[in-house]
């Protein structure tokens, strides 16, 4: 038998099935953006394809990193770009943690969190949520001598809930200054700031006071570029430099860099699309509540439906009519906000179930 690391034999990776290419299927299972690329993004990608396909990408990604730095008012050496924010989650885990260490993660967590923790050989210290929302005080209490990394996915996947500044401020102050705190803000653009106590604890406004904080953002969600794989990390140059050293060289192609640059320049279009998604999110939640399924306030492009043991049955009923939604164990289903006609197909399934109850 080949001498593989045990984790390479035992890690359970998710098997999401083949990509959905049939337009008859309502894909509400992957938290994607339902819209196609903006014309300016399409043009930038095609122009780069023609000019650069035979060349290696710009490894240091200076143009894109500079644009991100300008956008957030930070320095170039505070920004690193990866193949999606997952690439950077992996780099943050690898940069901080190894066997014997502990990584604090609020539960339920996005499935990639336990995977990336396991890859390092560190132990995951899970902290249960209260009413579908992270208990950040308990997360701070969970930090021990061996803790190397504390994650805060805000808003969280799969629950869609967020924690406001009133709770996050004390949480940040409780974390020892030599432990990295990772704010995963993949869904930040969809946050309803006014619905959070103290407003949204935007990582960028907290960076100056907390050099142990790194913020992750992505072009995969609101910007609608999930297939192009671009995310970024912003933090202290010491930490960002470590992520840069641990990169896989050339993973972010020039096509992806060009797409992200064009997308970043199209803030008006972005805001219009986010407004469409959040309006549909509101409609979904109101209609679900009307059918007897209340859902927690969502700050993302999906809705978390606590199902009390019914999750698999709901997913199966949806799949029977070519609607894909995601179950998390028996107790919850996550529904991505799609186009109105696709959301209606999901609501039809739930209306039928409501009548049968
Ligand atoms: N963080 C969270 C919380 C997510 O839900 C996702 C995608 N589902 C990601 C990160 C990864 O996004 P990407 O790698 O596409 O940037």
Q: Can you describe this structure?
A:
This protein has 357 residues and is of the alpha/beta class. Helices cover 40% and strands 16% of the residues. It contains 13 helices and twelve strands. The strands form three sheets. The chain has a seven-stranded mixed β-sheet, sandwiched between helices. Strands 9-12-11 form a three-stranded antiparallel β-sheet, covered by helices on one side. A two-stranded parallel sheet has the order 1-10. Strand 6, helix 8 and strand 7 form a beta-alpha-beta unit. The protein is globular, with a radius of gyration of 20 Å. It starts with 5 loop residues before the first helix and ends with a helix. The model has no long low-confidence stretch (mean pLDDT 96). 4'-deoxy-4'-aminopyridoxal-5'-phosphate binds next to helix 4.
C-alpha-based Rg, rounded: 20 Å
Order of secondary-structure elements: HEHHEHEHEHEHEHEEHHHEHEEEH
Tell me the quaternary state: single chain
Q: Runs with pLDDT <50, length 5+? A: none
Binned, the helix content reads 25-40%
Strand ordering within the main sheet: 2-8-7-6-5-3-4
Please outline the major beta sheet: 7 strands, mixed
Could you say which small molecules are bound to this protein? 4'-deoxy-4'-aminopyridoxal-5'-phosphate
Give the overall silhouette.
globular
Distance between the termini: 54 Å
Q: Please, how many helices?
A: 13
What is the tally of beta strands?
A: 12
Percent strand: 15-25%
Helix/strand structural class: alpha/beta
Mean pLDDT across the residues is 96
């Amino acid at each position: 038998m080949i001498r593989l690391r045990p984790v390479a034999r035992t890690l359970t990776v998710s098997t999401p099935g083949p990509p959905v290419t049939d337009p008859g299927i309502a894909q509400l299972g992957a938290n994607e953006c339902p819209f196609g690329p903006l014309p300016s993004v399409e043009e930038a990608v095609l122009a780069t394809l023609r000019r650069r396909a035979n060349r290696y990408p710009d490894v240091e990604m200076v143009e894109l990193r500079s644009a991100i730095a300008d956008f957030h008012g930070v320095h170039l050496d505070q920004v690193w770009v990866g193949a999606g924010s997952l690439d950077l989650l992996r780099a943050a885990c690898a940069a901080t943690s190894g066997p014997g260490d502990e990584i604090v993660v609020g539960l339920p967590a996005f499935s990639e969190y336990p995977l990336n923790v396991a890859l390092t050989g560190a132990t995951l210290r899970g902290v249960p949520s209260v009413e579908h929302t992270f208990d950040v005080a308990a997360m701070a209490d969970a930090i021990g001598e061996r803790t190397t990394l504390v994650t805060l996915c805000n808003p969280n996947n799969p629950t869609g809930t967020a924690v406001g500044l009133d709770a996050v401020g004390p949480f940040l102050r409780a974390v020892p200054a030599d432990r990295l705190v990772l704010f995963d803000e993949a869904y930040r653009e969809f946050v309803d700031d006014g619905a959070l106590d103290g407003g949204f604890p935007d990582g960028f406004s907290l960076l100056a006071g907390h050099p142990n904080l790194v913020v992750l953002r992505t072009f995969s969600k609101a910007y609608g570029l999930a297939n192009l794989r671009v995310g970024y990390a912003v933090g202290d140059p010491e930490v960002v430099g470590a992520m840069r050293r641990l990169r896989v060289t050339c993973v972010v192609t020039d096509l992806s860099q060009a797409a992200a640059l064009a997308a970043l320049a199209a803030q008006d279009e972005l805001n219009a699309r986010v407004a469409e998604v959040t309006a549909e999110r509101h409609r979904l939640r109101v209609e679900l509540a009307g059918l007897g399924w209340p859902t927690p306030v969502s700050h993302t492009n999906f809705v978390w439906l606590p199902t009390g043991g019914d999750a698999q049955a709901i997913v199966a009923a949806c799949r029977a009519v070519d609607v894909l939604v995601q179950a998390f164990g028996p107790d919850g289903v996550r529904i991505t906000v799609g186009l109105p006609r696709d959301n209606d197909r999901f609501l039809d399934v739930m209306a039928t179930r409501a009548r049968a109850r």
